[in-house]
Design brief:
Blueprint: E1 3-5, H1 7-26, H2 29-47, E2 55-60, E3 69-78, E4 81-88, E5 91-99, E6 102-111, E7 116-128, E8 134-136, E9 142-148, E10 171-187, H3 199-205, E11 213-221, E12 224-229, H4 255-272, E13 276-281, E14 289-292, H5 295-307, E15 328-333, H6 338-349, E16 353-358, H7 370-392, E17 396-399, H8 404-417
Parallel strand pairs: 12-13, 12-15, 15-16, 16-17
Antiparallel strand pairs: 1-8, 2-3, 3-6, 4-5, 4-7, 7-9, 10-11, 13-14
Helix pairs in contact: 1-2, 4-5, 6-7
């Protein structure tokens, strides 16, 4: 990079020189004196111009990551004052004068509704010499990519699979055990504990104590939940961006952003209950994340969801992903084609409880032309037919863009009203 004279300094030097010449020709020393000051200042400041070019780089921030937030440290090295500019897509994040005189570090925080891998920002600097007499060429933009983890929204009651597993948990199962509600009162048998004897029932049914009665309880167990994200589609609320020539706006969450948030919310809700949660991707053939529990499992799920993205042409599977026996399946998809509905039907016929979560954003169709409106009408009709077929197969539907916590709580109560469901 090279340092050049600023326009203001050039104009000042030329004007000062002209005043000196005019004053000398007209014999007006007062006019000549007016031009001496800007002439001397401009020449002096130009001679004091820096010889070192300013540089900028982005480094990882020490602050802990947060959902919907990108953080980095801007490190500027310059001999004096610089003009710092930061851009993200088509928006301006920062335009500021910064006094450096060496090396200076300051934080850059960007809020975003999008998740997954992203470019944080493009930052460049332009050096300003003493008295603003000289300017450097703008530096090459510095950038840094970051992984934005999806956040979670609180959910209430959650649906459970038809069969529970494990020897412990937070839900009542069908089998007898300890920790749950009353199952029945039964005559004492080998293997029953003495502390389970119900003396009131014994005194009422066998006053002579020739037979003892014990209270039997339901055992507590855990649910196994598999979250399946359909990463083949990543569409925004504007149908004109679906063809891929124009990207969605940065302030518009796409269907995959909603799917990541929905899956994270469900994972957090089930893991807080002590259940085991796994993750699979309908759009990629790779080893799924097996069901597990605990805080680390939630971190693994969030990281895997953030890395989920469309991989080339939509994948057509030869068979549906394999699931653990008796698992609850939550499928997050836009259902814009038949693939997701086909695998949901396979899982439902295999005996799994399947909850289809519709993550298509609320569409904006006001600016569509007649042909685009006709195409959207055909797409909507085909999509409604798929969802109706899923309802016929007893696949339960939840729309994430509305009130998902209400719909999920309704599904949870519906299962509790069934005889022996989720017990």
């Amino acid at each position: 990079m090279t340092w050049v004279r600023s326009r203001a300094t050039t104009v000042g030097v030329v004007a000062g020189l002209a005043l000196v010449v005019v004053g000398a020709l007209l014999g007006r020393p007062d006019v000549a004196v007016l031009g001496v000051a800007p002439l001397i200042a401009g020449v002096r400041d130009w001679q004091r111009r820096p010889s070192v070019d300013p540089t900028v780089r982005l480094e990882a921030s020490d602050a802990p990551p947060a959902a919907g937030t990108l953080r980095a440290d801007v490190v500027v090295t310059a001999p004096g004052t610089v003009l710092v500019g930061a851009r993200r897509a088509s928006s301006v994040l920062l335009d500021a004068w910064v006094v450096v005189d060496g090396t200076r570090r300051f934080p850059l925080v960007v809020r975003t509704v999008r998740t997954g891998p992203q470019d944080l920002a493009f930052v460049d600097v332009q050096g300003v010499g003493p008295g603003a007499a000289s300017l450097s060429e703008p530096s090459a933009p510095a950038s840094r990519s970051a992984l934005v983890l999806p956040g979670a929204r609180p959910l209430g009651d959650l649906p459970l699979p038809p069969r529970l597993r494990g020897l412990t948990g937070a839900h009542e199962s069908r089998r007898p055990g300890e920790g749950g509600g009353l199952r029945d009162v039964h005559p004492f048998a080998p293997g029953d504990r003495l502390r389970r004897i119900d003396w009131r029932v014994t005194a009422r049914r066998a006053p002579d104590l020739h037979e003892l009665y014990v209270r039997r309880e339901h055992a507590l167990a855990e649910a196994v939940v598999v979250l399946v994200v359909d990463s083949r589609d990543d569409v925004g609320p504007d149908p004109m961006t679906w063809r891929g020539s124009t990207p969605p706006r940065a302030q518009d969450p796409t269907s995959l952003d909603l799917a990541r948030q929905a899956a994270t919310s469900a994972a957090q809700g089930f893991l807080n209950l002590g259940d085991r949660v796994g993750l699979d991707d309908l759009g990629a053939v790779r080893r799924p994340l097996p069901p597990g529990g605990g805080r680390r499992q939630l971190d693994r799920i969030r990281h895997a969801l953030a890395l989920t993205h469309p991989e080339g042409d939509p994948l057509r599977r030869l068979r549906a992903p394999q699931l653990p026996s008796g698992a609850l399946v939550m499928l997050f998809s836009t259902f814009l084609d038949d693939e997701a509905s086909l695998v949901a039907g396979v899982w439902r016929r295999a005996g799994h409880r399947v909850v289809a979560v519709d993550v298509l954003p609320t569409l904006r169709e006001r600016n569509l032309g007649d042909r685009e409106r006709l195409a959207m009408r055909m797409i909507r009709m085909a999509r409604e037919d798929r969802l109706a077929e899923l309802a016929d197969l007893d696949v339960e539907l939840v729309t994430w863009r509305d009130s998902p916590h209400v719909a999920l709580a309704t599904l949870a109560r519906r299962a509790q009203r069934r005889a022996g469901a989720a017990r």
